[in-house]
Amino acid sequence: LEQARQEADTIKSELSDRNLLELRNSEIIADSPEMRQVLSILLKLAKMDVSNILITGESGTGKGLLAKFIHHNSRRQQKPFITINCAALPEMLLEAELFGYEKGAFTGASETGKAGLFELANQGSIFLDEIGDMPFSVQAKLLKCLDEGEIRRLGGTKALKVDCIFIAATNQNLEELVEKKKFRHDLYFRLNTFPVHVPSLRKRREDILKISMFYLKKYNETYHQKKRFSEKCIEQLQ
């Protein structure tokens, strides 16, 4: 048991270090008033240690990076930051990954059982990306977890308490999904406690030049080049 605890602590530490290193190696460019406001709101939420934050925005707007920004600026920054893409896994596997399972819970299950991501994220943060694609049946279990602050492994009878910042993101319109009965009405309102919308780049054009120069410098260093943008190229980008 002691060895298992030590291994679990090691895994938590490695996950946390890996994700925080990724955050430090990334830069959030926010010269535009719209993006500065988003960062200001997220910073306040991080300092308040609130949960149930819903980040919306088109694909590529940096929702995952902003979720890490919240974790990095919270009092839980030294704890795990766990992330999972809800669209990447089939229903049964997603549920097992999130909540874990006891031995023999289903065909092919590990003989020793497995801790879920919510358990690994305890005292830290968990980020569910593309939550609009979460299967309806898993949504019910997630709602119970958010309401009661506890989870139950697949095939298990014991409730486990979890304390973590819960962050979700989607590029879909959840209100429309609720109307089409593809997303639970009660879960939507639970998730929408602290909604934050990330504007697309075309709505914050002040950031275009700085982002362009950031990536120009990055790839010049990566590929040992000395490329530059012409004035005409910059005009076309903007």
Description of the structure:
The protein has 238 residues and is of the alpha/beta class. It has helices at residues 2-24, 33-48, 63-72, 91-99, 117-120, 136-148, 174-179, 185-191, 208-223, 231-237; strands at 53-56, 81-85, 125-129, 150-152, 159-161, 165-170, 194-197. Strands 2-3-6-1-7 form a 5-stranded parallel beta sheet. The protein has a two-stranded antiparallel ribbon with strand order 4-5. Helix 2 (33-48) packs across helix 3. The longest helix has 23 residues, at 2-24. 27% of the residues are buried. The mean pLDDT is 87.
Uncertain segments of ≥5 residues (pLDDT<50)?
A: none
- Overall number of strands: 7
Spatially, the strands of the biggest sheet line up as 2-3-6-1-7
What portion of residues is helical? 40-55%
**Span from first to last CA?**
59 Å
* Average pLDDT metric: 87
Gyration radius, rounded: 20 Å
The run of helices and strands is HHEHEHHEHEEEHHEHH
- Shape by Cα distribution: globular
Number of helices: 10
**Structural class, please?**
alpha/beta
Query: What fraction of the residues are assigned to beta strands by DSSP?
Result: 5-15%
Largest sheet: 5 strands, parallel
